[in-house]
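Per your request, structure below.
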């Protein structure tokens, strides 16, 4: 009888670094998405912060980054410790199932008992030690044959997130906070969101998943058999000379589906999902209003300033994000958002920050792809 591996020794982190972050246009673009920017004033990009948060858990050799082919050089420049063996380049965006399942399948080929954890490259978490304690608990739960998510205690009835309805405690000594997941709920309307938060039974779904790779892939096979077959074929070829040919043949035809639909929701219905409530504070930096709230450095009175701009502000509040060294003067404007880049300028208010995404959709539709 071989001795059982400690669950944490089986653990491998995956950082899906995708998503343009269109609510952060014109700073975040297809060529320079939000994870490649310093949005908190920490002096590091969100991707670098994510990497630093994960390295103490299983080591820098056990983190795999999935990103677009176009971001290869930027990612390798920002993370010097990342080996090309642990870099998976997508030919085009195909949503989260393809990205996470391909990474899981590649790692499972290398290590059949691997437990993977997927953590977005563009979230802000401040208490790294609390984050790591929560992840370690989730890894212990995953080792019992569960898909585990990390749930965030809601601070308000937000309509911007999906929710997790939690159930009974799992009564695991190694993971005292873990509970069963009853179901996942899509982004609700405000009335429903209020009910969820008041009930105390719901957590925000931050899209962090920890699971044995084999279990995650089994779920994909049940819900999306064709996608699963395509992913396994690419994984088989990955560490061989056939990688490029296999990717070019299979990747363009992959179905786009979010991992919430392909894995989380059906697995929860089958009683296979658990949640560990987070003890750390978490922000998804979804729009410029969220960045304004996070900004403590670079404050000029009530104005948060990111970047190198020369700023003159009189009786003004909000956020100014600059990618130029132009002088910007603001007089008597409240809750304003100004984002200045060499070829595009955005002016809006905190109240309308979420609407930047529809502006980006309009730019696409009218053929202004040169500024996207």
């Amino acid at each position: 009888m071989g001795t059982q591996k400690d669950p944490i020794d089986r653990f491998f982190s995956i950082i899906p670094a995708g998503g343009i972050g269109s609510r952060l246009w014109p700073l975040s673009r297809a060529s320079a998405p939000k994870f490649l920017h310093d949005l908190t004033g920490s002096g590091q990009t969100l991707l670098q912060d994510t990497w630093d948060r994960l390295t103490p858990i299983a080591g820098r050799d056990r983190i795999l980054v999935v990103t677009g082919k176009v971001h290869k050089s930027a990612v390798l420049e920002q993370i010097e410790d990342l080996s090309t063996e642990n870099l998976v380049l997508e030919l085009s965006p195909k949503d989260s199932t393809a990205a996470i399942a391909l990474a899981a399948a590649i790692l499972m080929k290398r290590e059949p008992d691997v437990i993977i954890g997927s953590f977005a490259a563009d979230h802000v978490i401040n208490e790294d030690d609390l984050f790591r304690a929560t992840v370690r608990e989730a890894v212990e739960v995953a080792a019992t044959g569960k898909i585990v998510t990390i749930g965030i205690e809601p601070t308000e009835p937000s309509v911007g997130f999906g929710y997790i309805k939690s159930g009974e405690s799992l009564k695991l000594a190694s993971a005292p906070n873990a509970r069963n997941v009853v179901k996942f709920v899509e982004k609700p309307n405000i009335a429903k969101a209020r009910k969820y938060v008041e009930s105390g039974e719901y957590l925000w779904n931050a899209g962090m998943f920890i699971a044995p790779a084999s279990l995650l892939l089994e779920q994909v096979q049940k819900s999306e058999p064709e996608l699963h077959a395509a992913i396994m074929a690419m994984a088989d070829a990955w560490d061989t000379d056939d990688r490029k040919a296999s990717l070019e043949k299979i990747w363009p035809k992959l179905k786009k589906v979010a991992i919430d639909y392909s894995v989380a929701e059906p697995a929860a219905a089958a009683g296979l999902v658990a949640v560990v409530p987070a003890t750390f504070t978490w922000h998804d930096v979804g729009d410029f209003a969220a960045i304004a709230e996070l900004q403590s450095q670079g404050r000029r009175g009530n104005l948060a300033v990111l970047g190198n701009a020369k700023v003159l502000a009189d009786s003004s509040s909000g956020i100014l994000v600059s990618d130029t060294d132009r002088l910007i003067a603001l007089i008597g404007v409240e809750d304003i958002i100004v984002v200045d880049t060499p070829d595009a300028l955005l002016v809006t208010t905190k109240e309308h920050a979420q609407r930047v995404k529809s502006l980006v959709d309009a730019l696409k539709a009218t053929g202004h792809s040169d500024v996207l």
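The chain has a mean pLDDT of 90.

Regards,
D.
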